[in-house]
Write a structure and sequence with these properties.
The chain is α/β, with parallel strands linked by helices. It has a single domain, classed as Rossmann fold, CATH 3.40.50.880. It has eight helices and 14 strands. The protein has an eight-stranded mixed β-sheet with strand order 4-1-5-6-14-13-12-9. A two-stranded antiparallel ribbon has the order 2-3. A two-stranded antiparallel ribbon has the order 7-11. A hairpin with a 2-residue loop joins β13 and β14. α1 packs across α8. The protein is globular and about 60 Å long.
Length: 251
């Protein structure tokens, strides 16, 4: 069974409540990965989630540390969280760059996935900032250098364009519409498996001995609405993406 690490897809919010003359604040923690993790579990795949606030200190920084996993997913977690641990940000010290390690790990046989969101690819106001990062070389797509979000409140239509691909085999019937995604373009040696409003939704790529895959929409609300999460094809699709990434390779 593939060993899968999901980094990100969580957030901490602070709100101020005004009640007449008085006010108070509250802090909440939320994760958007529950449905995705449950879908993977239903396909026999266990996903370990590393919350966004833990990534700077805890994300594996070396190929050796990454070798504990077959698949690594980056979801709604930006470039800064990987390159600004406390050693760098507070102490001004050199340390290992986990994004460089991810590139080497992928080329050596790992399976790297990026899922969409406000802090994926380039993201909101280009703050995710992965277009010039090391992992841009191993992903199956090229990213914009500006804000790449495409919000579709009216619904964006998904369709399979490579029905013979292993990932597409899990696509059951007509998928519900999505509410947004990150706009990217496929690299020449990538395989576009599915599109959303004629843009890339799923693309895959063989990278050295490893593989990479993108899912350009959310893995949970809001871009991926309840109807999509409850679609009979969602869990098999999640399982197929992770299985393809984690498949044993001999070459």
């Amino acid at each position: 069974m593939a060993r899968v690490l999901l980094a990100g897809e969580s957030w901490i919010s602070q709100s101020t409540h005004y009640k007449g003359f008085d006010s108070f604040s509250s802090t909440t923690f939320e994760t958007g990965a529950d449905e995705f993790i449950a879908a993977a579990a239903s396909q026999g795949i266990e996903v370990e989630q590393m919350y966004g606030h833990d990534v700077p200190a805890r994300f594996p920084r070396t190929v050796e540390a990454l070798s504990a996993y077959d698949v690594v997913i980056l979801s709604d977690i930006g470039y800064n969280s990987f390159v600004l641990p406390n050693e760098v940000w507070i102490k001004g010290q050199c340390t290992d760059n986990p994004l460089l390690a991810l590139v080497e790990w992928t080329r050596a046989g790992g399976g790297l996935m990026m899922a969409g969101g406000y802090l994926s690819f380039q993201g909101f106001q280009a703050r995710a900032n992965f277009a010039r990062s090391p992992i841009a070389d191993v992903l199956p797509v090229d990213m914009l250098t500006s804000d790449d979000r495409a919000g579709s409140p009216q619904g964006a239509t998904c369709r399979v364009v490579a029905p013979d691909h292993e990932v597409a085999a899990a696509w059951t019937g007509e998928a519900p519409q999505l509410l947004g995604y990150n706009v990217v373009t496929a690299k020449p040696d990538a395989q576009v498996v599915a599109t959303v409003d004629d843009d890339v939704l799923i693309a895959t790529r063989e990278v050295g001995k490893g593989r990479s895959l993108v899912w350009t929409s959310d893995i949970g609300p809001h871009w991926c609405p309840t109807e999509f999460l409850e679609w009979e094809g969602f869990a098999p699709l999640v399982g197929a993406m992770l299985s393809w990434l984690g498949a044993e390779r001999t070459s």
